Every structure is written in C-alpha cells, then in structure tokens.
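This entry is listed as follows:

___
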Amino acid sequence: MRVLLGFARAVDGMNRRIGLVVMYGIFVLMAILLWSSISKTFFLPTIWTLEMAQFAMVAYYMLGGPYAMLTGANVRMDLFYGNWSLRRKATIDVITVLFLLFYLGVLLYGALGSTAYSLGYWGDAPIAFFTGLITGAEEVGRLEQSSTAWRPVIWPIKVIMICGLFLMLLQALSEMVKDIARALGQDLPEPKT
C-alpha cells in the first residue's frame, strides 16, 4: 500500500503544479476576448479570436480538471453522502471511481482516434497509428483544418485534450488509491469537499 500511496502523492504533486500554472490561463482567454472587442470596435475585426478563445477555454478546462478533482472543487450530490462516516464515504467512492475510470478510458480512446484522424489517419486502429509514428512505420497525412475562415490545424488542441484526459485518469487512480487506504482504516487527511 505504501507504493500505491507514493504513486498517489506523485500524481497529486504533478497535477497540483500543472493546475497552479493552468489556472492563469483564464487571463489568456480574457486577453483574447479583450483584443477581439477592441479590434471589432476600433480596427478591422480579426478572424482568429473566436476560435482561439475556444481553444484557450478547452486547454483551461481539460488541463485544470485534474486539479479540480484533487482539491475537491467538483460538484457532488450531497443528499446522503455528507452524513456518512469517512470510511463509508471512501468505500462508496472506490465503487463510483470505477465508473469514472471506465468513462475516462472511453473518452481517452475516442480522443486518440480523433487526434489520429486530424493527423491524416483514416483507419480504425489509432493506437497502432501512434505506435507507428514513433517507430517510423507510419507517416502524418493531410492535416485536418477547421472549417472557419481562419482554418487552423486541429491536432494541437486534440493533443491537449489527450493530455488532460490522461492526467484526469491518473488523478482518478490516485483518488481511488487514497479511498482504498481510507476504507481500510489508514489515517489519511480528509479529502476536501
């Protein structure tokens, strides 16, 4: 159990550092939207601001999600849960995190497929495609571009989504390890709610 708790501490530390940096992304988003307003009012309107604001929001949301889970900032239905003991909460959380892990796994696999498509791969084995990219057996095809007038390539934001989902998966595993330890009666700090 000590090794698993070490894993949980490492994941928590990594997601805490990433979250503390990513939380300033809201200022990037505000700057993009401010420039959009200024350029529409005083200059020629820019075509890139709306889509860039969407990309910034996706990065903020996806990379900040694991930090929100770590700090307990996520929304929780507290009808019965609040009155339960810490061990009972931990037992129920171990069960419910299994559903979260499955859901995140499906999302991650879908994100891998979508990213492979945006890199010009039209097959049905995205993991084999990325393995082939690493070994040199596969090549990047025609890059997917947005259908807007700006027409940026889409793969960078999809890679950020993969990173965010992977970090969320790691944080869910960390939470599961801590909940198993609490359910077994180990004395850990109470999770933030």
